[in-house]
Design brief:
The protein is mainly alpha-helical and 617 residues long. The protein folds into two domains: 5-375 and 399-421, no CATH class; 453-616, SGNH hydrolase (Rossmann fold, 3-Layer(aba) Sandwich). It has helices spanning 26-43, 54-78, 83-112, 117-128, 132-138, 157-179, 183-204, 212-216, 218-234, 246-269, 275-297, 302-307, 310-317, 319-333, 344-376, 393-451, 467-479, 496-505, 525-533, 552-564, 575-578, 595-616, and strands spanning 461-465, 484-487, 512-516, 540-544, 570-573. The longest helix is centred in the C-terminal third of the chain and has 59 residues, at 393-451.
């Protein structure tokens, strides 16, 4: 994400050594374009690219390859690695664009959504110090399952992983180069570290649970960067022969094409809740990506020429800025509640705005800061007035950090008070709505009940649910006295079998069972079948699907539909379809129900129970 065209031409010889550079590899910029578009598709919830999140792993492999190549080239030419120079160049490359994006997001939120400033304070500080991933882990913020408006800074976790790699990997590499006389031991050690990281991901991950810990962790994601690093050791770009012909060139492009095929297939068919992804799938993907990088990096590759196509290459050169800007643009311009799905015109202009902001950042901020000093020094320094002389990089970075801190603390301290008042007002409004809901339901239930002639009894029904069912309990208890409703905040499907066993022991499991689970996270088909099989004594089972403005909504609903079709005594209640187009049903988190939403949801469930009763009769 943070390597552009000039990265491939970076001067590797500090302080007067003969200047040599890694040749520019246009195909890798084209690959960055593919990676950033995959990530954008994922954040836009495009269902036909469920594995768009794998674009991040593609960036990781690229970064590992290029950064390690730069370090190895410097060691080969000078016998050492200037760590201070390396880290300063990384800071000059990454920080200016990040500061501008953070300033832009904070300014926008200050003007248009000041109640959100307080919540962004810690995330912005974590982003500033490249610790976003560990902040999200320790605060248990799920990338996939958190409710409420998503943070516009939630995507910066991946930059934190890369920056932590840039901090520690050069140190490890220097130690290896200094004390290991044979390069094969360094390569073996790098591969061992990669396998250890992948194994940690597989062991920590629990199928059916939120995968955010292994998704965010530097320890569990480092293998993609290390795979790229190992490739740089065995496939150094500066030693490649552009005159490769015949069978060797064919083999090169076939290997790269195979890697591309695996990359595209996994992007098009996998999603973040497939257990196989965390049990070796991401490692396989990284190896395939490394094969693709190897082909695109070679100057003789035909595939590299295709990926080096001008427009694709330009997008790749801007990919760091596009990555920085696209997520805030999407989050801050999406409607608070959206029950109608993808809005194509809005999607197009969101992408367009992201690219425009990235281009402005590149040409007005990033490149002048990175290369402006050299341009100035072409003129005789004695002819420059003091105010015309360029600032040293360390001065620019220090001033930028100071300005960023001022922006964060001044705006956020003011925003804190607004946020508290807004939250208090929201809580009061919610309580009033719930009171009004109960009063109106009590006043209207009698007349509605007479419209339905049925013998259904509450003492025949058990409902197991999460927080949505807590809101529905007064409605259903009033209409169906004696019904048993066991609802709990944050409940997930993997908890259901133990709960069902307890209800059965307490004689609270009736002949009709309704399951409303899936709001708080995904589950596997195996977990759902285990839950249903534990209800073997139930005569009828009703499954309620979900509406959650998160990418795992589709996974949950598809699993429920597929499994329901294989059981003769199961009926699916399509809450997702029946709530479509009804923004008025939901609070701003897009999940929990307003007064009208409670009434509508209650009527839908009652209709389903009555219909089920009539079908059985």
């Amino acid at each position: 994400m943070n390597c552009s065209k000039k990265t491939n031409q970076v001067n590797l010889h500090p302080r007067g050594l003969q200047k040599k550079s890694i040749g520019y590899m246009p195909g890798l910029d084209g690959l960055r374009a593919l990676a950033v578009f995959a990530v954008i598709a994922y954040h836009l919830n495009l269902t036909w690219i469920p594995g768009g999140l794998l674009g991040v792993s593609l960036f990781f492999v690229l970064s590992g390859y290029l950064i390690t190549g730069i370090l190895l080239k410097q060691w080969e030419l000078s016998g050492g690695i200037d760590l201070k120079d390396f880290w300063l160049r990384r800071a000059r490359r990454l920080l200016p664009a990040l500061f501008v994006m953070l300033a832009g997001v904070m300014s926008w939120v200050l003007l248009w959504a000041p109640e959100r400033l307080a919540a962004l304070k810690q995330e912005a500080l974590a982003a500033l110090f490249y610790t976003s991933n560990w902040y999200l882990i320790f605060h248990q913020v799920s990338y996939f399952e958190s409710f409420g408006p998503p943070s516009p800074l939630g995507h910066l976790w991946s930059l934190a992983v890369e920056e932590q790699f840039y901090l520690f990997w050069p140190l490890l590499l220097v130690i290896g180069l200094r004390y290991c006389l044979q390069r094969k031991w360094i390569i073996g050690g790098t591969m061992a570290l990669a396998l250890t990281s992948a194994a940690a991901m597989a062991m920590i991950y629990i199928p059916g649970h939120d995968p955010s810990r292994v998704y965010y962790g530097t320890d569990t994601r480092a293998f993609a960067l290390l795979v790229g690093a190992a490739l740089a050791m065995v496939w150094p770009n500066w030693k490649m022969n552009a005159g490769l012909t015949g069978k060797k060139r064919l083999a090169l492009d076939l290997g790269g094409s195979l890697g591309l095929l695996v990359v595209l297939l996994m992007i098009g068919t996998t999603d973040q809740y497939q257990p196989s992804l965390y049990q070796g799938g991401l490692l396989l993907y990284s190896v395939a990506a490394a094969g693709l990088v190897a082909a695109l990096a070679h100057p003789a590759s035909y595939l590299g020429r295709i990926f080096g196509w001008g427009p694709l290459r330009w997008v790749g050169e801007c990919s760091y800025g596009i990555y920085l800007w696209h997520y805030p643009v999407i989050i801050l311009t999406n409607p608070v509640v959206n029950t109608e799905g993808l809005n194509f015109p809005r999607t197009l202009w969101q992408i367009g705005v992201s690219i425009i902001l990235a281009a402005l950042s590149r040409y007005l901020i990033e490149e002048p800061i990175r290369y402006g000093r050299q341009k100035y020094l072409r003129r005789r320094r004695s002819n420059l007035k003091w105010w015309q002389r360029p600032l040293a990089p360390i001065t620019k970075i220090s001033l930028s950090i100071l300005l960023m801190f001022l922006l964060l603390f001044v705006t956020l301290n003011g925003g804190m008070h607004i946020s508290e008042k807004a939250l208090a007002k929201s809580q009061v409004s919610q309580n009033l709505a719930q009171t009004a809901d109960q009063e109106e339901i009590a006043a209207t239930k009698g007349s509605k009940a007479t419209d339905k002639k049925t013998d259904i009894q509450g003492n025949e029904i058990t409902i197991i649910g999460d927080s949505l069912m807590i809101n529905l309990e007064p409605v259903l208890q009033k209409r169906l006295p004696g019904i048993i409703i066991d609802a709990q905040l944050g409940r997930q499907m993997y908890q259901a079998p133990d709960l069902i066993s307890r209800l059965e022991d307490e004689a609270k499991l009736r002949k009709i069972v309704m399951l409303e689970l899936g709001t708080n996270g995904s589950f596997t088909e195996k977990q759902l079948r285990k839950t249903l099989d534990s209800l073997e004594r139930a005569e009828e089972i009703l499954l309620v699907n979900t509406r959650v403005p998160k990418p795992w909504e589709r996974e949950v609903n598809e699993t429920l539909t597929k499994v329901a079709e294989s059981y003769s005594n199961i009926k699916l209640i399509d809450w997702h379809l029946l709530s479509s187009g009804h923004e008025e049903y939901f609070y701003p988190d897009g999940v929990h129900l307003t007064e009208s939403g409670v009434q509508a949801y209650g009527e839908i469930l009652l209709e389903a129970l009555i219909s089920d009763q009539m079908d059985r009769e």
